[in-house]
């Protein structure tokens, strides 16, 4: 699991973002499909133009899942089991794409919160996102 210090840093940034988590998650999605076009294949049914309603709606869902994950760091696989099923069995998202999304989210947050983005915050967020990706990418049951 994350260290208490890592968890505290992530929680502090989450509080600061408040209702903007979905805005930044959407920005990360806009970035992933532009910077890494190979990931577009997963999102084929969605309108991927910047600012699209579908992308924003999807960003909000991903943000909500990340917030749930933050509240369940001790039982992530359980808390995310339905989503893990979706990502492994149905969507078959490859591990690299999870890393790329994490990268895009880190970059987005660093741009919006430069003053908060110490190396320790970088590490804490990276660990958090790695844990979530791991829980989502491991088949359950
Ligand atoms: Zn994912 C979906 C989350 C990653 C792709 N997702 C989804 C959802 C959610 C999520 C919540 C919704 C579900 C329902 O509706 O039920 N994801 C998530 C998270 C993460 C992710 C948290 C991490 C961090 N994804 C991912 C990646 C990819 C994806 C990496 C690729 C690249 N997803 C996806 C898709 C979908 C999803 C494609 C479906 C969409 C639609 O709508 O169709």
TrEMBL record:
GO terms, molecular function: haptoglobin binding; heme binding; iron ion binding; organic acid binding; oxygen binding; oxygen carrier activity; peroxidase activity
Entry superkingdom: Eukaryota
Any one GO biological process: hydrogen peroxide catabolic process
Keyword Acyltransferase: no
Cellular-component GO terms for this entry: blood microparticle; haptoglobin-hemoglobin complex; hemoglobin complex
Keyword DNA-binding: no
Globin domain residues: 1-141
Family stated for the protein in its record: Belongs to the globin family.
This protein's name: Hemoglobin subunit theta-1
């Amino acid at each position: 699991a994350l260290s208490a210090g890592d968890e505290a840093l992530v929680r502090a940034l989450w509080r600061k973002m408040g209702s903007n988590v979905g805005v930044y998650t959407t920005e990360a999605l806009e970035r992933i499909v532009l910077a890494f076009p190979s990931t577009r294949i997963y999102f084929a049914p969605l309108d991927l133009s910047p600012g699209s309603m579908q992308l924003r709606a999807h960003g909000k869902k991903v943000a909500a899942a990340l917030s749930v994950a933050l509240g369940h760091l001790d039982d992530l696989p359980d808390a995310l089991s339905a989503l893990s099923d979706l990502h492994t069995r149905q969507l078959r998202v490859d591990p690299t794409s999870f890393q790329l999304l994490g990268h895009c989210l880190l970059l987005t947050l660093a741009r919006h919160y430069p003053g908060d983005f110490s190396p320790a915050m970088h590490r804490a967020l990276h660990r958090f996102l790695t844990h979530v990706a791991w829980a989502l990418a491991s088949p359950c049951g």
